[in-house]
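Continuing the series of single-chain predictions for the mutant panel. This is the parent chain; the variants come on the following pages.
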Amino acid sequence: KAIAEGKVEQLTLILKGDGSGSVEALEDALLQIEVSDEVGLRVVHRGVGGITQDDVNLASATDAVIIGFNVRPETKVKEYADREGIDVRYYSVIYQAIEQVEAALKGMLKPEFEEAQLGTAEVREVFRVPRIGNIAGSLVRSGVITRNSKARLVRDGVVVADGLTVESLRRFKDDATEVRDGYECGIGLGSFNDIKVDDVIETFEMREKPRT
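Parent structure:
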């Protein structure tokens, strides 16, 4: 169902080998690879013998990778595959094929991101600046507050506004790129002006989450 809805990326394969037993063993091993529900493996053709022009044509039509297990194409077929831009891989050991196909499937996964908190600042005073708006006179409580970082405003433990940006950051009268834990600063959140004393400004960034 997920494939039909276009939610699953697919790696399409054509398997050729030196014997029916080895082709079946290779296919069984590859189809047992489980990476994620987001990616799938499909074998559109399997056969015994060398890689042929028909295999290359099918690979071109189905956007498939050809895997040759102890078999090779003739020179003319190899040249044709190169011209067509077909990816042909050669293996003599099944586990090498499994490792590379698994790596290819993982490479098809869309990156996942997780939030990493950068710093928090407690609002001590609110200053109204003409043509700019409200500036939060704040004390950095943890980490570091960085200009242009993503931010949210928390009031009494409740998120009042999300999707904000630290558009201006000052240390006394000077612009700053970052202010660290224990220091005071002035924080401007662009056009967002609903800032009150004792509010907490949290800053964060989205980091790519490593796949396991």
